[in-house]
């Protein structure tokens, strides 16, 4: 049993933050076990460097945690209030571009992957294609809701 307890304590020492000698002196019932904070460590049992959680932000936020600004490439084409108003106005006057109409037809018949491939070919990057596909699918759902209300 003594050997078993020693093995158990060495195992527990890896999981919990406490001194084994103090644990033996005070006894099991009197000692309060405290778990080590998991989020401060990279991977495994107490492994790696202490890390802080990284939050992505468009603009600088609170100074309490580490904040990293988004890459400019991710910000390109992002909708702002003015930008959205202008695009909606243009969309109302001009309608959709031919490639958007074709992508919407593909989305109507549940060919999402094909629509993504098509949009990627037309727009150039995977991220822009995904954003456009999401935008067009939202337009389709709005059209369906409008048709249901009539």
Automatic annotation (TrEMBL):
A Gene Ontology molecular function term of the record: structural constituent of ribosome
GO biological process: translation
UniProtKB keywords: Ribonucleoprotein, Ribosomal protein
Recorded GO CC terms: ribonucleoprotein complex; ribosome
Domain of life (superkingdom): Eukaryota
A Pfam family the protein falls into: Ribosomal_L36e
Subunit structure: Component of the large ribosomal subunit.
PANTHER family: 60S RIBOSOMAL PROTEIN L36
Protein family: Belongs to the eukaryotic ribosomal protein eL36 family.
Official protein name in the record: 60S ribosomal protein L36
């Amino acid at each position: 049993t003594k050997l078993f307890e020693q093995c158990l304590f060495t195992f527990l020492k890896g999981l919990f933050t406490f001194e084994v000698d103090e644990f033996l002196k005070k006894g099991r019932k009197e000692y309060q076990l405290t778990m080590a904070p998991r989020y401060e460590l990279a991977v495994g049992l107490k492994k790696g460097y202490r890390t802080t959680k990284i939050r992505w932000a468009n603009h600088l936020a609170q100074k309490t945690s580490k904040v990293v600004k988004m890459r400019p490439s991710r910000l390109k084409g992002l909708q702002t209030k003015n930008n959205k108003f202008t695009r909606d106005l243009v969309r109302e006057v001009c309608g959709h571009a031919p490639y958007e109409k074709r992508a919407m037809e593909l989305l109507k018949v549940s060919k999402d992957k094909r629509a993504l491939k098509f949009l990627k070919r037309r727009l150039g990057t995977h991220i822009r294609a995904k954003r456009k596909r999401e935008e067009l699918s939202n337009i389709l759902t709005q059209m369906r809701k409008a048709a249901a209300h009539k």
